[in-house]
Amino acid sequence: xxxxxxxxxxxxxGDLALSAVxxxxxxxxxxxxxxxxxxxxxxxxxxxxxxxxxxxxRIWLGDLEVTRLGRGGLRRARRRMGMxxxxxxxxxxxxxxxNLLSGRLGYVSFWRSLARRFPPDDIRNAFRLLDRVGLMExxxxxxxxxxxxxxxxVGIARALAQDPDILLVDEPTASLDPKTSxxxxxxxxxxxxxxxxxxxxxxxxxxxxxxxxxxxxGLRAGVVVYDGPPDGLTPEVLTEIYGEEDxxxxxxxxxxxxxxxxxxxxxxxxxxxx
Amino acid sequence: xRVGDVNGEPSIVEDASRFAAVIYPxxxxxxxxxxxxxxxxxxxxxxVLYLVVGIGAVEVxxxxxxxxxxxxxxxxxxxxxxxxxxxxxxxxEGLLESLTMTLTATVVxxxxxxxxxxxxxxxIATSPVYLACRALIALSRSLQEIIxxxxxxxxxxxxxxxxxLTLAFATIGFLAKLLAEDIEDIDAAQVEAIRATGAGWWQVxxxxxxxxxxxxxxxxSLYRLDINxxxxxxxxxxxxxxxxxxxxxxxxxxxxxxxxxILILIIAIVLVTEYVxxxxxxxxx
Lengths: 274, 285
Ligand SMILES: Nc1ncnc2c1ncn2[C@@H]1O[C@H](COP(=O)(O)OP(=O)(O)OP(=O)(O)O)[C@@H](O)[C@H]1O
Ligand SMILES: [Mg+2]
Description:
Chain A is α/β, with parallel strands linked by helices and 274 residues long. Chain A contains 10 helices and 10 strands. Chain A is globular.
């Protein structure tokens, strides 16, 4: 599905954020990307849809070489990659529905989007997604009137509205409380399972990553230092990724949630906690 | 001074006892802007000296002053008894002309300012467009309204057309600059999110940027509307039509009571626009 071939990014300031990262993610796989601050996690995600231009290396999305695309081709490729942000990055002054429909911008003409006249199928699908994330009654609220957890749901729905093949998720829970974080992670994993989406999820919380991810990639100073299952994150491995620290109680976290099959959304719980 | 530093790793818990032995200063002042004391004094002294010399250099004609004092008092006296009646037709015509001039100039000015402002925003425009738009803004801002008015009066003759052109031109410099700065200050994350959906340039502009700057653009346009009205009174004096021309005539004839009436009406209209624009701005936020 997604293949990175010795992806390297050096910023104009001289920082080497990624150094020859190679990674392959099959369709439907949800990968947690962990690493200390400044390791290059955000850079990696942004290189994939070229919000940041890679310095060298190649990116393949299926058979499409993303790194060789021109402007129009890149726009079409971006439609297949849904992005979810730490600070939600909703357009604050637009309504929830407008934010959701903005996921369709790559598919509709400028004039249509200017008049907010989206095709009926897009609108129906947007309402379906809104229902899926449990925000049906908030459709016409402005995005800045929502709580953090609600905003992130809109962010997820917007990414899904693109009808993507892969989700690029940058610290989806860093601004949320522990309970809401878990709900968001569960939601993410469920929608990925439902639609067979692959995902790269940047995450700081190792326990959360272990609990919800199938595969973990550890990045340190722009280099992949771990790639394997969540149980492989022993104190030694964590030290390798993050540096010396007391890891008691982090590494051997047993996984409860991962074995449970992704069921129907627990909407009551989702809505109740907001 | 990093007391608790061990091998560059500040440790917090273990070395807490070390801090007990250190005596910390209890006196602290913000470092001055200019470090050198002598330079500081020299600059202060220089400023005072310049002020004294500068004031001394102004020539005052006391005879003219006492004569003018009387005239000034009479002018102020006009405010006590403003005369709205005897020149009412002229005043009404002048005010209507000014209002028309102001409104049309603001609308046209805003319409031109929007593309110019977008082009002058560093974060979205390409550099030739940026330079061209900034140049236009700089030109508009560097020429004072009166000078522009004189120019347009020379070009299109006396009357409100010259005033309209002047105000529209001045509006571009003001509004396009502030709009461009607003666009440069927007939250980049929202724009990036829209770009990441595969949206085109115009769609990014519409969804990511327009939504962020519209409230302020409306506020600024209303603000410019009342600036333009005040300016219309001034540029009328150099022949660009409007109530300024009426005011000028009244002053030339020493009809201070009529002049006072005109000024009072200008103040009233500015006040009304001020309240209205405040109300609208609170609404659109
Ligand atoms: N726009 C930029 N310009 C210059 N250097 C940058 C830029 N963005 C990131 N960097 C540098 O690249 C490196 C990796 O940054 P990145 O944001 O990818 O880290 P991260 O792993 O996402 O960190 P965090 O967990 O704190 O979000 C850092 O050294 C950072 O200083
Ligand atoms: Mg980051």
